[in-house]
Design goal:
Blueprint lengths: L2 E5 L2 E2 L6 E8 L7 E7 L6 E5 L8 E2 L7 E6 L4 E6 L8 E8 L7 E2 L3 E4 L1
Parallel strand pairs: 2-11
Antiparallel strand pairs: 1-3, 3-8, 4-5, 4-9, 5-6, 7-8, 9-10, 9-11
Length: 116
Amino acid sequence: HVQLVESGGGSVQVGGSLRLSCVASGDTISRYCMGWFRQIPDKERERVAGPTLGGGIPYYLDSVKGRFTTSQDNAKNTVYLQMGSLRPEDTAMYFCAAGPRCGYYYWWGQGTQVTV
């Protein structure tokens, strides 16, 4: 199955930008639905961005719409999350995930911390 490794997190000032990367190995990401999630301590993990089951416009959490963009480079087997206009409430551990279908995520990376 696929293995996922996130990178690109760090500390950034309010209003700043970061680009997270999720590199996959062991399989090709074109076979999976890839998604981005985030979690803060004592809170449930929430989905941030990713394709939807029916295709079309990607899903974005309401609070990140217009600020975050997800993209996928199949040739590099990598998924990206471009984050802009960052706010303190975006502080979280960010994870990428893969699943056989959108909404069914079975494989997860170890996460990368974003602090605003």
